[in-house]
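Repro case for the chain-ordering regression, as requested:
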Amino acid sequence: MDTWLLSRMQELKDLQGLIGLATWDQEIYLPARAGPARAHQLSTLQGIHHERLVDPRLGDALEKAATEAGLTDDERAMVEVLRREREREVRVPAALVRALAEAQSQGLHAWREARQERKFARFQPALHRLLSLRREQADAYGHDGERYDALLEGYEPGMRVARLTPVLSTLREHLIPMVGTLSGTARKAPDLFDGRRYDKDAQWRFTLRLLKDIGFDLEAGRQDLSIHPFTGGTHALDVRLTTRVDETNPLSAIFSTIHEAGHGLFEQGFAPEHHRTPLAAAPSMGLHESQSRLWENLVGRSRAFWEHYFPLLRDSFPEALAGVDVEDFLAAVNAVRPSLIRTESDEVTYNLHIAVRYELELLLIRDELPLDELPAAWNARMERYLGVTPPDDTQGVLQDIHWAWGELGYFPTYSLGNLYAASLYRAAERALPGLEGQLRQGHLLPLRDWLRENIHHHGFRLPAEERVRAVTGQGLTDADFLGYLRTKYGVASCQGR
Amino acid sequence: MDTWLLSRMQELKDLQGLIGLATWDQEIYLPARAGPARAHQLSTLQGIHHERLVDPRLGDALEKAATEAGLTDDERAMVEVLRREREREVRVPAALVRALAEAQSQGLHAWREARQERKFARFQPALHRLLSLRREQADAYGHDGERYDALLEGYEPGMRVARLTPVLSTLREHLIPMVGTLSGTARKAPDLFDGRRYDKDAQWRFTLRLLKDIGFDLEAGRQDLSIHPFTGGTHALDVRLTTRVDETNPLSAIFSTIHEAGHGLFEQGFAPEHHRTPLAAAPSMGLHESQSRLWENLVGRSRAFWEHYFPLLRDSFPEALAGVDVEDFLAAVNAVRPSLIRTESDEVTYNLHIAVRYELELLLIRDELPLDELPAAWNARMERYLGVTPPDDTQGVLQDIHWAWGELGYFPTYSLGNLYAASLYRAAERALPGLEGQLRQGHLLPLRDWLRENIHHHGFRLPAEERVRAVTGQGLTDADFLGYLRTKYGVASCQGR
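-- result from build under test --
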């Protein structure tokens, strides 16, 4: 490949890394009064990234490379990925970019105030403006009549509403009766969080032990504390996880660490020859989330895993866990209970929370739901799918930050992550016959290596669903996920599947 | 001022802030394996900064603004500072910039190996290359026959060898006999570091207490740990100090924190209306160092200061300091003793270490000292000025990192800092008649406010010496510094001054 083009790819990747650093730092270490200064710095950096991405010389070089003979498959993929990213960015007029940035900032502000007042109406005008701009943006990107597709493409390249809706609707129809059956039948375990204290340093050490066992390389990454755990960083050799430590409940730290480690392994697993190129990236948010979910739920909430780790956990908290056995603990980490808040929900109810959001944001982008009916529509769906009714908007339609800054199209990637995770785990079980026994001994590296070889290493070479199909033999499906839940929770198929 | 020009100034400042962030992070939090990735990111960022600084459109805008009527004084100063910076950068050919970067990297590598082998000869070829490129760079910058001036200009704008050499030579001639008189006469204090343990957390808390009292705003900055303490950050509201904690000796943490806080106060003290402009910067490294030295030595090693803080220190380390009184402690922090290592030297001998370096690097840049004679020349001067002889090159000519990456012209700014510090402190005593009494009560804010108003607030508006003259009534002089030492250590003038 042309050395100029390669150096431009590397430069763009370096700039993304630096945006990652400035964002990570902002969430964790930025002094309180430096917010506006950092906003300026980030805006400058993003502006330079934009300017260099839309540079016509880059466009010409990409066009030329796309027709060039003699490129390797990887080089062809690099050119293709960057071309697509560039074409999207070029299509959005600068005035719309600015208007969106402003509306996002106002949206966040209004959302925070609305949450304080517990009144959606306070946020409604800002959301109205954001929706209108996002529709305009979707039209600028271009679509075949379904604007939502154009937004979804930014998070889940290649996925379309026509493909997604049937899968998520069927999933929903299977989950609703399953939740009904399961909730209330939970084993009555002792409440592990009834005022017991779990030493913070011991929690931190336990999470570091988990990172080591999972194979997250702490010489190519780090873990810090933050209020909202996330995965960031600047490069495959500089991947930064955060976790949170709650003295009254160690599950928060444990599952945050495992979840973020799943994301982090993806980032650390990119092929070294792809570093500083467009291929050193996950092909979609859904596939990224599949890795965090696989580790968090399929592994981290399994009996085999805790047969190994529960004795170590009890050693870490001998007082708080005195008299608790592994069955009590498994019951606590696998309790199924319909709840109001998505981020606190279990692996069975979780996708129903996503169904509510996906269906509503699709209506909103299509302009088929008047905004003043949104809270009622939210509450009605929560009642219908989960049997719970939010007592106010803050515990209902205002709970997530996503819409507050106009991020529509992101929510379904969480469900895609859950579905892909189950399919990939099933493929791993077939490929690694001793997997469960390995987990039972705390040997997590064979699974990590299998995921690295089959998923992480490929980076952005194939769209997510094609990569999953290459590994599992099939594309997006809810069968593996539902099968996993039925086996784990001992529920018979409710609709004759 | 033209809004385009202002936005370019802001953008350049934002990029400098981001370079600051990436550098700070690299020293403290970067994972071990991410070094090469960060080097790429920094090089990309520096390349973009360079590209935008030498952009001919910026040159035109600056030329136009320089002749424009109706600019405020501040705007005129912004234009002037950026013009000078740009002109220097424009003059160095890109090939030379690349060659220097490569030679610096090789220099650091060779220097580390040479230190391991304790042999200067291992480093000599790399230094030879660096010197040759730095001479070339000096010629590119332009000078009146004294190449060193062109390099000094990068650290101490406006200063010249012709002005500096007489001052530093006279200083040296006064210090040599003073050191002779003082060393050996030190009060025989109990050794405070004979295996006693000073709790690390208590040291950390003590440094935070000092930062608070000194008026370093921890909501507009932070303190972290690093091996080599430094001051970095991204903006006047995001100033980042580091300190180091040695369990066997709390003076390391205490004086590192006070020193870096002096630098940090300068950065935090820039006028808000100068933020994101070329004026939000110190006009020279010497004036910057004057602030760290003033707090570290003039305040932090004074009797008045410790009359307040020693009781607090004893409360922090009741076991280690049992039976130690303030006199013992003052003797320990003010012991004068010729030594081999600059960074461990006291305030009397320190400038003799600088004299060795300044004189030698001046000879090197002038090409008047064959490189293979450098270690012997170093040792001879150490013997002559300080009466000590390095047992090997690692404790001699190889001790500092500066020459390892070709930084010549920096060392004298340390002595300038000491001289300016004494002059400024004397002016502060005149302006604040109750100063000593305030220190004695731990009231440090009046001094900070005076420095903020007279030094920090002005940023880059005047060259360093002019700023000092505006405050003290005189420019660079060794009289205040020598007077301070004579009074403090009770030495009579040795040469009839």
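Ordering looks correct now. The mean pLDDT of chain A is 95.
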